[in-house]
Write the structure tokens for this entry.
Amino acid sequence: MSKRRILVIEDEENMRLLIKEELEDSGYEVVEAKSGEEGLAKFKEETFDLVTVDIEMPGMNGLEVAGKIREMKKDAKIIILTAYSHYKSDLASWAADAYVVKSSDLTELKDTISKIISK
């Protein structure tokens, strides 16, 4: 079976590399994007099983990106990553399948990804 592909949209380089390494160790193929705009361009060109999006990014924020991804592909699986848990109650959360609060321990993220991808 081919590897599941995940698009990681994250402007913070250290976080992006950490997520990429951890997900690759878990057996996923990971494509990175440094901005919402770059992420959307990659999403248009390629097929992904899941997208993780950071909320706080310069330019287009993660909620806008998630909304645009939904417009392109209604059933896209999206996880929003945020350093701030208050976004969980944000009305824009409809655009995502899950919210994960960022931390250096990516257990929650990996568990959430495997739950959503295996649905």
Remarks:
- The chain has one domain: 5-117.
- The beta strands are 5-9, 29-33, 50-54, 78-82, 98-101.
- The chain has a mean pLDDT of 90.
- The first helix runs from residue 13 to 25.
